[in-house]
Specification:
mainly alpha, binds fe (ii) ion, 0% strand, single chain, disordered N terminus
Length: 256
Amino acid sequence: MNAKDSDRRGFLKVAALAGSALLVGACGSSGAANGGNATNANTAKTAVPGAKDEKEVTPIEDLMREHGVLRRALFVFSEAAVVLPNNPSANWIDALQKSAKLFRAFGEDYHERQLEEQYIFPLIRQKSVNGPAGSYPDILTQQHNRGREITDYILAATAAGKVAANAGELAKALQGFVRMYIAHASHEDTIVFPAWKDLITAEEYDKLGDKFEDIEKAQFGEDGFEDAVKQILEIETSVGLADISKFTPAAPPPVK
Ligand SMILES: [Fe+2]
Ligand SMILES: [Fe+2]
């Protein structure tokens, strides 16, 4: 059992094992919900009574820390949009290409497609269409799709290692993507995810922590989140964005 296993699979989970049938019922039975390559979460449980240092990553914490990785990629996009019109170094083009690849793999193909579109949106559509998050799944899905179009564009525009002819259009596309996704992820964090959590039992919620981990492992191997954090740090370092202290602005002037 690695450190991440022990995070997620603490002794508190043992009591939830009997709830798997309920979970499938609550979340539908299509797609990743019954994904053939996901491992059975029930096989690796180990009870460690009294292990007070066991900490689990809950489903919403999981989704929100994934947003954290995506926001860091968006920050690279945002800074790139500023430097692009001024003939940026090859490092910036490379950072854009790598950030778009990370956004595609970790954001679009995993976080959006395998978690939100399989587990979060369907339950809200099914059980809470008149609730506070009821109108969100359609809008958010449209934004996922538009984001994928923009990611395709970023990947294509940076593929040759230069963007001379496309710099202005690419900067505009990056700004639009950042603007959309800041609103998108913020509303997921504050409205959609809490509404979804209210629709399931504590037992189902606990069980989904294991399910999300299984999907992450099937997609990326043991350390999907940790690897994504490592990747974005390398990208940030390559273009001087790793030291966040440089982004603390000057104190504001006195009001006149
Ligand atoms: Fe989303
Ligand atoms: Fe999201």
